[in-house]
Write a structure and sequence with these properties.
Elements: H1 2-10, H2 20-23, H3 44-58, E1 66-70, H4 76-85, E2 89-93, H5 97-106, E3 112-114, E4 130-135, H6 144-152, E5 155-168, H7 177-189, E6 198-199, H8 200-209, E7 212-219, H9 221-236, H10 245-263, E8 266-275
Parallel strand pairs: 1-2, 1-4, 2-3, 4-5, 5-6
Antiparallel strand pairs: 5-8, 7-8
Amino acid sequence: MKWLQAIRQKLPRHKYAINAKQLGDDAELAWSNLGYWEDATSSYPAACRQLADQLAQAVSLNASDRLLDLGCGQGASLLYWQQHYQVQHIEAVELQASCVIQIQKYFPQITAIYPQSFLNLKQIPFKQRFDVVLCIDAAYHSNLNSFLDSAGSVLNSKGRLGFHYLILSEQWLKLTALQQQKYKWLLKAADVNLEHLMTASELEQTLQNHDFSDIKIRDISKAVLYGFANYVQHLQQSPQQSTGLDTFKIRMTAKLCQQLYQDGLLNYVQISVKKNA
């Protein structure tokens, strides 16, 4: 557990910052998610685009949608929605001020971007509600009820929401209190609160309680957790592999992904829902 706790103690940058160049993306608007991996030889940007595609297709994103991207990171997804889905109205929310500045510089076509937490959407003066709200690889850092309450407040009637989360598997229920405590500290180091996580059935009930329907929960643990861990292991075999604190963070994130997948106690899921009229 010490190796994960050291991430937050040693790195001076924002806790969600990642050195995308070390992962293989040197674009001005780079990707910063775990990716959806077909195999370890895929490029990092390609895997990130695939994770975005999986989510966009789950909510049937189309060119006429008013789209809000939550936790958009360094902005690659915003450019992708415009270029590959021809979405014209794109707004975004991002907590990292440096990312907001970068996006405003290299993607001035964006309708609006707000330097705010996506848990505080009710405080943002949006002019209209959205047809689609997407949150790639970020919602599991927050309380699910808080996230759904915030995201649901800005959706149109019958608006669609897509995001990623972690859920407890059936095996989790068999752990002793001591084993569960170990995982609590392990996840805390990765800024995930174990008390916020639920089983699949609890998750579905929570979504219904927040007035969502057409609920689809898809386990993509292997493609994401195992895939990212395998890719980073592949990178480490390169003689040009970097060193330093950014590298340390990437390797520890990969190590956590590997452990979560191998233990099978938590599943990484893609969730798509529709707001009730």
